[in-house]
Amino acid sequence: ALSFPNDIHVMDWHRELQYVKIVQDALIQGKLPFNVTNMNIMYTAHSDAFLAIPIYPLSIQSILLFILDPMSFHILNHLFLILIGFWGCHLIKTEYSLSFTSFLFILVTFNFYGGLVAKMAAYGPSQLGYYFSPFIILSLLKLSNKNNAANQKDSFIWSIYLALALAAIFFQGSLHTFNCWVTFLVLWGLFNLKDIRFLLVSACVTIGLTAMRLIPAAVT
Which residue in 3, 41, 116, 215 is a FRET match for 179, CA 20 to 30 A apart? Predict the structure, then answer.
């Protein structure tokens, strides 16, 4: 049987695995972890309010924590999200009829991007939202497609897809990746003012979907 270590004191791994352990305990006990003793030692927020910390992963696959320890869950979740990223890259390939060579280049560049590799080595679980990035790229390409400019219905649908991708990133606890994409989208909107209304729709939908994570952090 495979066995993974659960006590890794390299960079922030021990903290991140502890966040996952707290989520696991909350699921098993059926209690919301409003406050966690000594939380301010793990996360420098000067508060024990765990729900106010936006970098813990909490998504549909978290139900696996009923049967897996935090590290095993992280490994399996990572493999699952690699497949999600592959699917996103494949959608781009299909949409633009890319050759196999181009698709392979995208895959290698996407999966072995130095920023991701370095952050994954240092932090682990909170970086997995990165694998939803192809869906953001595809949504922006579709929004900026002049051939679809006349079809506002399609543009609004893609703006909702964009919001879903952003929310998925945030629910993986990938706050830094989320912030980077939001910053990029703000700049993209400034240079594509004709599409700003679609970005505003995405912003509203994203806030609505992530309110349960955003509001406790903002209030605290």
Answer: 41
pTM for the full model? Answer: 0.89
- Which residue in the block uniquely carries the two structure tokens 């993974």? 4
Cβ neighbours around 136 below 10 Å, total: 22
142 contacts: CB under 8 Å, gap ≥ 6: 95, 148, 154, 155, 158
Name the residue type at position 53. I
Q: Which long-range contacts link 137-146 to residues 24+ away (Cβ below 8 Å)?
A: 137/88, 137/92, 138/88, 138/91, 138/92, 138/95, 139/165, 140/185, 140/188, 141/92, 141/95, 141/96, 142/95, 143/195, 143/198, 144/192, 144/195
On average, the pLDDT of the chain sits at: 88
Comparing CA positions, the residue from 203, 157, 205 lying closest to residue 182 is 203
- Burial (CB count <10 Å: 0-12, 13-18, 19+), residue 69: middle
| 93 token code pair | 């390939």
Which pair of structure tokens corresponds to residue 153?
């219905």
Q: Which pLDDT score is estimated for 47?
A: 73
Please report the beta strands in the chain, taking only residues with DSSP state E, as ranges in sequence order: none
Residues 134 and 117: their CA atoms lie apart, in Å, by: 17
45 — pLDDT class (breaks 50, 70, 90): low
Alpha carbons 132 and 124: distance in angstroms, whole number = 16
Nearest to 59 by CA among 111, 120, 162, 128: 128
